[in-house]
């Protein structure tokens, strides 16, 4: 096969698999975030009070906000803005055309002029719409004759790039002095980020008692209970529907597959309405049955109630798949096996455990393992139903009552540190990968899914 047939697949593999993995690993060892994104922070611009060579004194260190960076402003790129106004004489003014007596500073653009009008007793500022050397075209003609001996020329701000090598309160030291022919008026810094080594991972371990450990424990419980309940309910219903004597069994199958056919986004929102504390159908049914006279705050109240709600909704979403998979496996079991069991005097219960169960094991083991892996990172049901809440006293702002590892990583990556804490979120993702790999290998080892069948 010619190599160019494989080129599209290789490009897609590198773009959508290899590159994201390498990028995630690389960002995990940086402090990249919304407040450290490598862009110029225009809101950090602060006036310069005094200049002494490469040393500057700024008006407000709080505006420069060096505290949000990993090592203050040391080694951070900055932009120093030069003064934007000079005074020059003018030769003539004809309508809207003003001719200066000298060329404006090289490399600078004139954006406006300030003309003193003696007849009015004050100066007027006019915008320049076109510049050709010393010839300027004004936006409109001055209303009174101006004094052309001294014209204030407003220039665009000149940006001088420097690096801050030291920061001491309101005093900064630059890597090089500023040019002598410019008047620096303000400075702004970049949101620099860089390599921080294992700092993100140390931070994760430091917060482990309140974040990683409880979230991981609930994550395992959530995935295990979901698979266990889905498997038990799916096998039970599949065995009932596999009875050829059951009337309307095809109708029952169709009705039970509906939750699988509907988009989970819509289904979860419907369940969110059912579980509403004030007008939800579930609380009303519980009140009518006198089970719980007081309405239960399923989603935003107690963490145990919210977790029960998540497992219930996930059972509704996953049951059709497990039922359909079991029905497919049951259809492959020949009727002669059950007939032989009945001849041997086996009851229905004995036939299930001695015949159906062992024959289903081969088909259900890989389905169960894949279902566990899917639910271990089931972000949708957590995000759409409870959004990770409710808050709990033992957790943090990003690790709450129903958060699993993947939603915790999402909260850290997109809801903290300016909204884009990619560095810390990438570190959590690597830990999730290691944990998921370990849990999967443990499942494979316990179930023997990776063992090769002995050859005869």
Flag low-confidence runs. none
Radius of gyration: 35 Å
Shape: elongated
Kindly state the number of beta strands.
14
Order of helices and strands: HEEHEEEEEEEEEEEEHHHHHHHHHHH
Strand order of the largest sheet: 5-11-8-9-10-7-6
The proportion of strand residues reads 15-25%
Helices, by number, come to 13
Distance between the termini: 37 Å
The overall pLDDT average reads 88
Q: Indicate how many domains the architecture comprises.
A: 3
Largest sheet: 7 strands, antiparallel
Structural class label: alpha+beta
Architecture of the largest domain, according to CATH?
Answer: Orthogonal Bundle
What's the CATH class label of the largest domain?
A: Mainly Alpha
Q: Within the CATH hierarchy, at the fold level, what is the topology of the largest domain?
A: MetI-like fold
Name of the CATH homologous superfamily of the largest domain: MetI-like
